[in-house]
Amino acid sequence: MSATLALGLADPPLDSQRIFRALLQAFSHPGRIVDLPLAPEAPAPLWRSSAAVALTLLDYETPLWLDGAADVDPVRDFLRFHCGSPLVTVPRAARFAIIAAPLSMPGLTDFDQGEAAYPDRSTTLILQVPRFAGQSVLLSGPGIESFTDVAVDGLPADFWRQWRGNHEGFPQGVDVILTGPAAVVALPRSIKAET
Question: Which CATH class is domain 12-194?
Fold first, then answer.
């Protein structure tokens, strides 16, 4: 166990409800940047927004995979203590994945895509990005009136090509929660992206 453990949520029941509502807003409006003002302190390289998502959605029944950047003692100890999630070493075995270094992340198809009968059993990726800026992509689908655009910096060069394949496999495929330093953007697999 790390010598100093980050505290987590100040008021776990109330704060997790507020964060959950913010995540619902993000998933209801894909591409919208949603602030997470109650994000707790987190051990590096985990951002406060990523920690907020983890502390709200993970528990002892949600296997978690950490990429090489996030797979460090302070992060493992923090997540084990506050969430109780079992850590797995294979991306496909995870229900959630935290990716702190997206430029070297595995492909989207390396994660559990769900099954035809149980598409909800796929992996949700918590993907840290440095900022919501740069070249924008056009999003369409459920929760978007016609089109909306989103700009995300720090993704792999072929991310949006992979996303097209992910969307084409709907209802199977992964969902992605993009976490900036203090905000989130949700990308459900039902969303189409055009570059």
Answer: alpha beta
